[in-house]
Amino acid sequence: WYQRRVREAVVSTQSTGGVLTASAIVFGNCVGAGIFISPRGVYEKAGSAGGGIIVWAAAGFIATLCTLAYAELGTMMQESGGEFVYIKNTYGRFPAFLFSFCNAFLIKPAALTVGAITFSEYLAALIWGEGVTWVMIKSISASFIVFLMVLNILSCKLIVKFCSVISVIKLIVVAFLLACGVAIVIRGEGHKENFKAASAFEM
Q: Taking CA 28 as the corner, what is the angle to CA 121 and CA 50, rounded to the nearest 5 degrees?
Protein backbone atom coordinates (compact mmCIF):
# COMPACT_ATOMS: atom_id res chain seq x y z
CA TRP A 1 0.00 0.00 0.00
CA TYR A 2 2.78 2.41 0.93
CA GLN A 3 4.72 1.81 -2.30
CA ARG A 4 1.55 2.30 -4.34
CA ARG A 5 0.85 5.58 -2.57
CA VAL A 6 4.42 6.73 -3.24
CA ARG A 7 4.11 5.91 -6.95
CA GLU A 8 0.83 7.81 -7.16
CA ALA A 9 2.16 10.86 -5.31
CA VAL A 10 2.90 13.87 -7.46
CA VAL A 11 5.86 15.96 -6.34
CA SER A 12 5.88 19.52 -7.60
CA THR A 13 8.89 21.80 -7.48
CA GLN A 14 9.01 25.56 -7.69
CA SER A 15 11.79 27.39 -9.46
CA THR A 16 13.78 29.64 -7.15
CA GLY A 17 16.07 31.27 -9.68
CA GLY A 18 17.01 31.71 -13.30
CA VAL A 19 20.06 31.29 -15.47
CA LEU A 20 22.02 34.08 -13.79
CA THR A 21 21.32 32.69 -10.33
CA ALA A 22 22.33 29.19 -11.38
CA SER A 23 25.51 30.56 -12.98
CA ALA A 24 26.36 32.46 -9.80
CA ILE A 25 25.90 29.33 -7.68
CA VAL A 26 28.04 27.23 -10.03
CA PHE A 27 30.72 29.94 -10.01
CA GLY A 28 30.61 30.05 -6.22
CA ASN A 29 31.08 26.28 -6.03
CA CYS A 30 33.99 26.33 -8.48
CA VAL A 31 35.75 29.34 -6.96
CA GLY A 32 35.89 28.22 -3.36
CA ALA A 33 38.02 29.16 -0.40
CA GLY A 34 41.00 27.35 -1.89
CA ILE A 35 41.74 30.15 -4.32
CA PHE A 36 42.62 32.39 -1.37
CA ILE A 37 44.73 29.87 0.57
CA SER A 38 46.28 27.46 -1.96
CA PRO A 39 48.53 29.75 -4.12
CA ARG A 40 51.20 29.99 -1.43
CA GLY A 41 51.35 26.22 -0.99
CA VAL A 42 51.40 25.59 -4.74
CA TYR A 43 54.38 27.86 -5.34
CA GLU A 44 56.22 26.56 -2.27
CA LYS A 45 55.87 22.95 -3.43
CA ALA A 46 56.56 23.77 -7.10
CA GLY A 47 59.79 25.50 -6.14
CA SER A 48 59.65 28.23 -8.78
CA ALA A 49 57.27 30.72 -10.36
CA GLY A 50 57.33 28.92 -13.71
CA GLY A 51 56.64 25.56 -12.08
CA GLY A 52 53.70 27.04 -10.20
CA ILE A 53 52.21 28.44 -13.41
CA ILE A 54 52.53 25.02 -15.08
CA VAL A 55 50.75 23.40 -12.12
CA TRP A 56 47.92 25.94 -12.34
CA ALA A 57 47.61 25.44 -16.10
CA ALA A 58 47.52 21.64 -15.76
CA ALA A 59 44.94 21.83 -12.97
CA GLY A 60 42.82 24.20 -15.05
CA PHE A 61 42.96 21.82 -18.02
CA ILE A 62 41.90 18.86 -15.85
CA ALA A 63 39.08 20.92 -14.30
CA THR A 64 37.87 21.85 -17.79
CA LEU A 65 37.73 18.18 -18.78
CA CYS A 66 35.75 17.41 -15.61
CA THR A 67 33.35 20.24 -16.40
CA LEU A 68 32.77 18.92 -19.91
CA ALA A 69 32.19 15.43 -18.50
CA TYR A 70 29.59 16.76 -16.07
CA ALA A 71 27.91 18.72 -18.86
CA GLU A 72 27.66 15.57 -20.98
CA LEU A 73 26.32 13.51 -18.07
CA GLY A 74 23.75 16.20 -17.32
CA THR A 75 22.42 16.15 -20.87
CA MET A 76 22.39 12.33 -21.02
CA MET A 77 20.71 11.73 -17.64
CA GLN A 78 18.20 14.51 -17.10
CA GLU A 79 17.14 13.45 -13.62
CA SER A 80 17.35 15.23 -10.31
CA GLY A 81 20.08 13.94 -8.02
CA GLY A 82 23.40 14.85 -9.58
CA GLU A 83 26.20 12.38 -8.93
CA PHE A 84 23.82 9.93 -7.25
CA VAL A 85 21.95 9.47 -10.53
CA TYR A 86 25.14 9.13 -12.58
CA ILE A 87 26.65 6.51 -10.26
CA LYS A 88 23.35 4.64 -9.87
CA ASN A 89 22.80 4.35 -13.61
CA THR A 90 26.42 3.27 -14.17
CA TYR A 91 27.37 1.08 -11.21
CA GLY A 92 24.13 0.41 -9.34
CA ARG A 93 22.23 1.65 -6.31
CA PHE A 94 24.62 0.49 -3.58
CA PRO A 95 27.72 2.41 -4.83
CA ALA A 96 25.45 5.43 -5.36
CA PHE A 97 24.22 5.13 -1.77
CA LEU A 98 27.79 4.87 -0.46
CA PHE A 99 28.80 7.99 -2.38
CA SER A 100 25.76 9.93 -1.13
CA PHE A 101 26.45 8.82 2.45
CA CYS A 102 30.12 9.87 2.28
CA ASN A 103 29.17 13.09 0.49
CA ALA A 104 26.60 14.04 3.13
CA PHE A 105 28.62 13.11 6.22
CA LEU A 106 32.25 13.61 5.14
CA ILE A 107 32.95 15.44 1.87
CA LYS A 108 30.48 18.33 2.06
CA PRO A 109 30.93 19.01 5.81
CA ALA A 110 34.72 19.04 5.38
CA ALA A 111 34.49 21.46 2.45
CA LEU A 112 32.09 23.68 4.41
CA THR A 113 34.43 23.65 7.39
CA VAL A 114 37.43 24.72 5.30
CA GLY A 115 35.42 27.53 3.73
CA ALA A 116 34.08 28.68 7.09
CA ILE A 117 37.54 28.66 8.72
CA THR A 118 39.06 30.58 5.81
CA PHE A 119 36.27 33.16 6.00
CA SER A 120 36.72 33.41 9.77
CA GLU A 121 40.49 33.89 9.54
CA TYR A 122 40.18 36.79 7.12
CA LEU A 123 37.27 38.37 8.99
CA ALA A 124 38.96 38.05 12.38
CA ALA A 125 42.23 39.46 11.03
CA LEU A 126 40.32 42.39 9.55
CA ILE A 127 38.54 43.17 12.84
CA TRP A 128 41.06 42.24 15.57
CA GLY A 129 44.36 42.23 13.72
CA GLU A 130 47.18 40.20 15.28
CA GLY A 131 45.26 39.44 18.50
CA VAL A 132 43.26 36.64 16.89
CA THR A 133 43.09 33.26 18.64
CA TRP A 134 41.93 29.87 17.40
CA VAL A 135 38.99 30.04 19.79
CA MET A 136 37.78 33.21 18.09
CA ILE A 137 38.23 31.72 14.62
CA LYS A 138 36.38 28.53 15.54
CA SER A 139 33.58 30.50 17.18
CA ILE A 140 33.08 32.62 14.06
CA SER A 141 33.21 29.50 11.87
CA ALA A 142 30.57 27.72 13.94
CA SER A 143 28.36 30.82 13.94
CA PHE A 144 28.68 31.13 10.16
CA ILE A 145 27.70 27.48 9.63
CA VAL A 146 24.68 27.88 11.93
CA PHE A 147 23.73 31.05 10.05
CA LEU A 148 23.74 29.17 6.73
CA MET A 149 21.69 26.38 8.28
CA VAL A 150 19.06 28.85 9.49
CA LEU A 151 18.89 30.47 6.06
CA ASN A 152 18.31 27.06 4.45
CA ILE A 153 15.54 26.31 6.93
CA LEU A 154 13.80 29.66 6.53
CA SER A 155 13.69 29.97 2.75
CA CYS A 156 15.23 28.38 -0.31
CA LYS A 157 14.94 31.65 -2.21
CA LEU A 158 16.77 33.45 0.59
CA ILE A 159 19.76 31.11 0.54
CA VAL A 160 19.90 31.24 -3.26
CA LYS A 161 20.07 35.03 -3.17
CA PHE A 162 22.71 34.88 -0.44
CA CYS A 163 24.85 32.48 -2.47
CA SER A 164 24.50 34.75 -5.51
CA VAL A 165 25.69 37.76 -3.52
CA ILE A 166 28.66 35.80 -2.13
CA SER A 167 29.59 34.68 -5.66
CA VAL A 168 29.56 38.27 -6.88
CA ILE A 169 31.75 39.31 -3.93
CA LYS A 170 34.23 36.52 -4.76
CA LEU A 171 34.37 37.69 -8.38
CA ILE A 172 34.97 41.29 -7.31
CA VAL A 173 37.75 40.28 -4.87
CA VAL A 174 39.52 38.12 -7.47
CA ALA A 175 39.23 40.88 -10.08
CA PHE A 176 40.56 43.43 -7.57
CA LEU A 177 43.60 41.29 -6.70
CA LEU A 178 44.31 40.70 -10.38
CA ALA A 179 44.02 44.41 -11.13
CA CYS A 180 46.39 45.23 -8.26
CA GLY A 181 48.97 42.79 -9.59
CA VAL A 182 48.76 44.17 -13.12
CA ALA A 183 49.00 47.74 -11.80
CA ILE A 184 52.13 46.92 -9.80
CA VAL A 185 53.80 45.38 -12.85
CA ILE A 186 52.84 48.34 -15.10
CA ARG A 187 54.23 50.82 -12.58
CA GLY A 188 57.53 48.96 -12.53
CA GLU A 189 57.29 47.92 -8.89
CA GLY A 190 57.51 44.51 -7.29
CA HIS A 191 59.60 41.50 -8.33
CA LYS A 192 59.45 41.16 -12.11
CA GLU A 193 62.43 38.87 -12.55
CA ASN A 194 60.15 35.81 -12.39
CA PHE A 195 58.56 36.90 -15.68
CA LYS A 196 61.86 36.28 -17.46
CA ALA A 197 62.29 32.82 -18.97
CA ALA A 198 65.88 32.56 -17.70
CA SER A 199 64.86 32.84 -14.04
CA ALA A 200 61.28 31.61 -14.07
CA PHE A 201 62.24 28.01 -13.23
CA GLU A 202 65.05 28.69 -10.79
CA MET A 203 64.56 26.85 -7.49
A: 75
